[in-house]
Amino acid sequence: MEFSVQAYCPICEDRHEFTSRDDFWSCRDELKSENCGLGGCITRERALAHVLFTLSDRESVRHLSIHEAGPMPRGLSAWLTVNAKHYVRSGFYPTIPPGDFVGEIKNENLEAQTFGNGVFDVVIHLDVMEHVFEPFKALNEIHRTLRLGGYCLFTAPTEHARFQSEQVAFVENGVVRTVGEAEYHANPQRPEDGALVTWRYGYDLPLLIQRNTPFDVEVRRFQARGIAVMGYMNEVYVLRRRI
After folding, report:
1. Would you call 213 helix, strand, or coil by DSSP?
2. Cα(91)–Cα(133) distance, rounded to whole angstroms?
3. Rounded distance, CA 26 to CA 184, Å?
C-alpha cells in the first residue's frame, strides 16, 4: 500500500505531499514530492537540512562559510548554491591537480585537503564517508578546516543489523582490493566511474569517530511525518569542534 503524507519541507519551507511505497523501508530513496522545486529532494537531504537549520537559523546560514563535499544538483545543495554567500562545493577528480576547479566544483581529496586551517563554519556531506578509504583521516582533515565551535554534519548508510563497522575495500601498493563483490553507488561528479563502497558502517561508528578524531559526536535519527523524514539509514551525524 502506498504511503502518503502532507509535510513541511525543511529545505524550501513549503508544504508538499510526499509519497513512497511504505512508511519505513522505502523512505530512504523514495519518499519524495512530485511538486519539489529543488530537483526532487530525498529524505536524508531533508534530515540534514533540518539539523542544519536547528543549529543555525536560516538567515545566519546564508552568511556562514560552508563546504559541501560531493554535492548533488538538488535539495539542500541546490538551496545553498542560491542562498549561501560563502558556499564551496568540492568533488574528487584523481587526474586533476588538487585545488583546481572543474567548472564550479573544487577538486579535493578529503583525506588531504588544500583548504587552510579554520576556514569553515560548517562542513557537510551526504553519503560520502562510505566511499572514502580512510574516513577518519578525512574527518581529521575536516576538523582542521573548521573554526572553533564549527560543525561537520553528514549522513552515511548505517546498517540497522550491524554493530561493528567493516572496511570492505583497501588500497595496497597502489592496487584496490575488495572484500567480496565490489559495490558501486552513483557518483555525482564522475557518473561514468561510479563510487566504490569502501566501508559498511554499523552502530559503533560514533565510537570509532570519538576514538580516532577530536570530535564530539551526536547522532540524530527521525521518524517524523511533519518533515517527511522517516525510515532507516537516514541518521545525521553531528560532529562539533570543541571551543
Report:
1. coil
2. 15
3. 20
- Among the listed residues 212, 202, 197, the one whose alpha carbon sits nearest the alpha carbon of residue 130: 197
Confidence (pTM):
0.95
Dig out the grid coordinates for 178 from the structure.
575488495
CA atoms of 222 and 183, how far apart (whole Å): 27
How far is residue 40 CA from its own chain's centroid?
16
Scan for cell 551525524, then name that residue: 237
User: What residue ranges define each of the domains in the chain, with the CATH number in brackets?
Assistant: 3-240 (3.40.50.150)
pLDDT of 211 > 70? The answer is yes
Answer whether residue 75 shows pLDDT above 70.
yes
The answer to whether 146 touches 241, Cβ cutoff 8 Å, is: yes
Give Cα separations from 43 to 7, 111, 181, 214, 229 (angstroms): 12, 27, 28, 29, 5
At position 99, the amino acid (one-letter code) is G
Give the residue ranges of DSSP H helices in the chain.
27-30, 43-55, 58-61, 75-83, 135-145, 205-212
pLDDT of residue 181: 83
Predicted confidence at residue 175, as pLDDT, reads 81
Question: Are the C-beta atoms of 31 and 6 separated by less than 8 Å?
Answer: no
Among candidates 44, 39, 33, which has minimal Cα distance to 6?
33
The backbone torsions φ and ψ at residue 41, rounded to the nearest 5 degrees and listed phi first, read -60, 150
Q: Name 190's bridge partners.
A: none
Residue 26's DSSP bridge partners are none
User: Which residues, other chains included, contact 102 with Cβ-Cβ below 8 Å and sequence gap of 6+?
Assistant: 91, 93, 96, 189
C-alpha distances out from residue 214 to 118, 125, 164, 195, Å? 14, 19, 21, 28
